[in-house]
Amino acid sequence: MYITYILIIPLIAAAICALFGRKTAAYVAVIGMMLSAILFTVNWFIRTGATAGLDSLATTIGLSTVGLMVAYVVIVIGTFITWYSRAYIENAGRMYYPLLLIIISTTAAAVISTNLATLYIFLEIGTLSTAILVTYRRGQAFEAATKFIILNSVGSSFTLIALILMFINYGTLDISSFGSISSNAILLISLFLFIGLGTKIGVVPMHSWVPDTYSEAPIPVSAFLAGTVKGASAFILIRFLFALHPALDVVLLFISVTALLTVGVGAIMAYTQNNFKRFLAYSSIEQAGIILFAVGIGSSAALTGGIFQIVNNMVMKTLVFLCVGAIIAATKQRNIDSLGGLVTKMPIVAAGFLVGALALSGIPPLNGFISEYLILQAGFQKGGYYPALSVVLVVLTLPMFAAYIRVFQRAFLTVDERLEAPEVSYISIYIIIPIIILSVLCVLMGIFPTAIIEQVNSLSVAILGG
Amino acid sequence: METVLAFGILWVVFAVLIVILSDKRSTLALLALNFTIAAFLLIENDLAGALAKATLGIASPIIILLAIARTRQPRPQFGVLLLVLAALFTLALSYVVAFSVRSQFPEGRTTETYLLIALFGIAFLTIVSQTSVVKLLLGILILENIGTLLLAWGENTALLTVVTEVFVVLITFTIAFIAVIDFVEYDTIDSSKLKQLRG
């Protein structure tokens, strides 16, 4: 049944949205996504086994139950994004909601896809839909869209070549049927896959589209791209990389070093930003590096930490983006230095941003701390270069923590008497509700992580076991 | 092997022409590249792949030609002589790289692998040496063609060929559409100028 929640309901809702006017489309989109999320939740908690809900249609198009948990988070976050969009986006274009729903459903479907052709189709539909959504605002958004589609098309070409090489070498489209192949072929496929999906994740040096796209796309779209699409792409990389047996140490080391470079560049560049959305874009590059570092360690424990970090990142990153969206909507300001003293004027948003920032910085007892701790622990356990690389990772994340403190202090606490205090207009309760729920989730997932870790652990074992 | 070599030389020549020629003529070179790939697939007994490439492979150049008809080619970043030298250097470098990793080549695919690495180099040269959005798109399409050529190495690849070609057309359409909109608004499709104009 789960294909109904992931693909059929959102796509039917998207088709209905395309037929109706803007206001009706917004309500149809929200109702469609809520229906998907609620039914998915009910099915998730009452399912009797790993294959519960695996129907013939899902099997035919190459979907599996491995990764269903990540797909579930994609649908839930997608529901928050659609809800937020209804309140946030004034004068949404006619195709805004259909495209948003298509991106959400294809992202969720790509996560659980085990078929090379199906995966490529979902990834490309997502890329094309995103390029159109980024151009929601004309002018600079076109620059961002051009950069997005050109760099992502180059990335897609690399992914396509990797998928074709897999098909030629293994003789099957289904990754669950992969056997063993020569290490030369694995090396080549791994590198193409890493560069291809790494472009979508925003790995340095293929990251240049990220700041432009996130800063020019509408906030709900940026939030979904930064938190969820990026995480989903990282999860797909994990699934397909570790379907190649055996994963090569040289590739894993290369990924680890690239991950550290990504963390460093993301953190340092974030510190220098004055535009709120560009700051978050660079912070999402830093987060991508942390996830990839877990991929580079490559052990079961590391993948548990990495997948948990992916799930956490979907929640934390969406939270901070939605907070920044609320600030921009209320103050009409994008520059951090133009703000100040917002803690008294927007206390809930300030609290939400603080929770998200601390969680992203890996501060206990929030969810980000647990996953980052698991990754570092796995790094120290692995031995070799990895304990030293783990120490480097900790050092490289410090500028990011400093950047969050700086931003919180400048935007929410300090009042620059030389500047006119920003006027804060009323924000709809519909914008505030997702911020409250996501903040609570960050805290709860940090204090009670056991159930999620168990799920993620069995998922990482399933991935490594083929 | 002779067939592969003959086709391969044609592919590399067409790819180099894409780097050197004007937007319009390089699109015709892409069309020729697509047709020779379709002919090659036919010789390799991949009838479905050849049909997909021959039919859908026409769509991308036509879309680009339509976009070119509605825009004006920007002044090239580099002169023809420099581009020819860069292409020769790229080919030489690709050969050196391929030669140094020849022990890793798949069995019985030595000639093809050399040619694909050369095409790969030229694709990147096209992307990095040009400022015209159309030329960037053509570079991406050379990369996609490498994927299609790799498909010829496998069996029962018709599905993947069709899927790939469909998305190539969609990507081409999206980028070409953005280029046309850009030209209407800013009177140029030069990516570096567009950046300045948009601020």
Summarize the structure.
The complex is a heterodimer of chains A (466) and B (199). Chain A has helices spanning 2-19, 22-46, 56-60, 68-88, 96-111, 116-134, 140-170, 183-201, 209-216, 219-241, 249-271, 276-297, 300-331, 342-345, 347-360, 367-382, 386-413, 429-447, 450-464. Chain A has 466 residues and is mainly α.
Question: How would you summarize the topology of this molecule?
Answer:
The complex is a heterodimer of chains A (466) and B (199).
Chain A: H1 2-19, H2 22-46, H3 56-60, H4 68-88, H5 96-111, H6 116-134, H7 140-170, H8 183-201, H9 209-216, H10 219-241, H11 249-271, H12 276-297, H13 300-331, H14 342-345, H15 347-360, H16 367-382, H17 386-413, H18 429-447, H19 450-464
Helix pairs in contact in A: 1-2, 1-5, 2-4, 4-5, 4-10, 4-13, 5-6, 5-10, 6-7, 7-8, 7-9, 8-10, 9-10, 9-12, 10-12, 10-13, 11-12, 11-17, 12-13, 12-16, 12-17, 13-15, 13-16, 13-18, 13-19, 15-17, 15-18, 16-17, 16-18
Chain B: H1 2-20, H2 23-43, H3 47-69, H4 80-100, H5 110-129, H6 133-151, H7 158-186, H8 191-198
Helix pairs in contact in B: 1-2, 1-5, 2-3, 2-6, 3-7, 4-5, 5-6, 6-7
Q: Name the structural class of chain B.
A: mainly alpha
Share of helical residues of chain B:
over 70%
Q: Number of helical segments of chain B?
A: 8
Describe the biggest sheet of chain B?
none
Count every helix of chain A, treating DSSP H or I runs of 4 or more residues as helices: 19
